[in-house]
Amino acid sequence: MTVAVVQFGGSNCDRDAVRALSHLGVDAERVWHEDGLPSDVDGVILPGGFSYGDYLRAGAMAARSPIMDDVRATAEAGTPVLGVCNGAQIGCESALTPGAFTTNASARFQCEPVHLRVENAETPWTAAYDEGDVIEVPIAHGEGRFEISESKYDDLVADDRILFRYCDSAGNITDNANPNGSRGNVAGITGESDHVAVLMPHPERATLPDLGRGTDGQGVLSAFA
């Protein structure tokens, strides 16, 4: 499988994503957004960073890059697409998934390890885990607060589209375990089809053993393996 890691002006996690995928035996290449998406890719990652300096809103300008038309088309064709952190913001702004990511409740940039509880283990992104598993991965964001209307949130729950929720180390969903004020402690969701997903935490930063951050993120990226 060849995964395209889309690089926008201001992306800074594209190399991390390529290295993490390579560690898992997945061929990956960075694709500059102005060059368009290659027709033969088997997967797409929208990586983290600060695309276009987060002007207007985080992810808003990147979502209007012509390459996102290619990403939407390949997603509609069934290709796995994952947005991570800024890529998650771009995914929501591009209507790949519902909702939006806004300023953290703390009004601060949050950079720390967090615990996530697996809510649905029957997706490509969570198949390596069991429902209820607790994993630890890092976050690094200033606008990671997931917001969505109550009715659309209820739809996410009813359709089992929530992948992960922020929790404590024992798996309890609490306000104190919610680092950014996201509705329902939501950390990641799927699109209408589960081969498309957005995730605010960084699984690629918890994939390489040598980084000392554990390897709990490998299960997410193994969807591309």
TrEMBL record:
GO CC terms in record: cytoplasm
Pathway the protein takes part in: Purine metabolism; IMP biosynthesis via de novo pathway; 5-amino-1-(5-phospho-D-ribosyl)imidazole from N(2)-formyl-N(1)-(5-phospho-D-ribosyl)glycinamide: step 1/2
EC number(s) reported in the record: 6.3.5.3, 3.5.1.2
Reaction equation(s) it catalyzes: L-glutamine + H2O = L-glutamate + NH4(+); N(2)-formyl-N(1)-(5-phospho-beta-D-ribosyl)glycinamide + L-glutamine + ATP + H2O = 2-formamido-N(1)-(5-O-phospho-beta-D-ribosyl)acetamidine + L-glutamate + ADP + phosphate + H(+)
Molecular functions (GO terms): ATP binding; glutaminase activity; phosphoribosylformylglycinamidine synthase activity
Subcellular localization, as worded in the UniProt entry: Cytoplasm
Active site: C85, H202, E204
Listed InterPro entries: Class_I_gatase-like, PRibForGlyAmidine_synth_PurQ
Pfam families, per the entry: GATase_5
Main location: cytoplasm
Keywords, sorted A to Z: ATP-binding, Cytoplasm, Glutamine amidotransferase, Hydrolase, Ligase, Nucleotide-binding, Purine biosynthesis
GO annotation terms (biological process): 'de novo' IMP biosynthetic process
Assembly, per entry: Part of the FGAM synthase complex composed of 1 PurL, 1 PurQ and 2 PurS subunits.
HAMAP family per record: PurQ (MF_00421)
Function field: Part of the phosphoribosylformylglycinamidine synthase complex involved in the purines biosynthetic pathway. Catalyzes the ATP-dependent conversion of formylglycinamide ribonucleotide (FGAR) and glutamine to yield formylglycinamidine ribonucleotide (FGAM) and glutamate. The FGAM synthase complex is composed of three subunits. PurQ produces an ammonia molecule by converting glutamine to glutamate. PurL transfers the ammonia molecule to FGAR to form FGAM in an ATP-dependent manner.
Protein name: Phosphoribosylformylglycinamidine synthase subunit PurQ
Underlying gene: purQ
